[in-house]
Specification:
The protein has 150 residues and is mainly α. It has one domain. It is 57% helix and 3% strand. It contains five helices and two strands, in the order αααβααβ. A two-stranded parallel sheet has the order 1-2. Helix 1 packs across helix 2. The longest helix is centred in the first third of the chain and has 48 residues. The protein is elongated, with a radius of gyration of 27 Å. The relative contact order is 0.10.
């Protein structure tokens, strides 16, 4: 058995070692980020399932999947929970409850109470600490109950 003599200089070996260590560090960072992302995704899906269950209990039919809801709301409710009791959030909601005309023709309308129920369920599921203030705001609006023609 024969052994070959080393033909690389110590500097060349150091460069190879540095490159290998660098690649391993990058792969470790990528693996960690993917792990954290998957763990957060599982929490997002759990919240989305809770919301779908709340919708079902309230008699609201939803055509979205838990994955689609999780993509939009994440695990913190997204824009819905940013500050639902702020003046701008309430003004945006009220603008959506108008007659649809633009400019001086815009008028508020009396809507069915169930129209606001979905947003209230989202807030109760994703940011329950904000729910009571939003519920008081919704209760202060003039709404009508949905008619059931059967």
């Amino acid at each position: 058995m024969s052994t070959s003599s080393e033909s690389q200089s110590p500097r060349e070996r150091s460069v190879i070692y540095a490159v290998v260590v660098g690649v391993l560090i990058v792969l470790g960072v990528i693996a960690t980020l993917l792990f954290i992302d998957r763990r957060q995704e599982a929490g997002d899906l759990e919240k989305a399932e809770q919301l779908l269950s709340a919708f079902s209990d309230a008699g609201i039919s939803v055509t979205l999947s838990a994955e689609q809801i999780a993509e939009v709301l994440g695990d913190d409710g997204g824009a819905t929970c940013a500050d639902p009791n702020a003046a701008l959030s309430r003004a945006t909601l009220l603008a959506g409850l108008a007659n649809g005309a633009g400019g001086p023709g815009t008028r508020p309308v009396i809507v069915e109470s169930r129209l606001l129920q979905g947003q209230l369920l989202i807030i109760e599921t994703y940011c329950p600490e904000q729910a009571e203030g939003f519920r008081q705001f919704v209760d202060s609006l003039t709404t009508v109950r949905a008619r059931t023609d059967g």
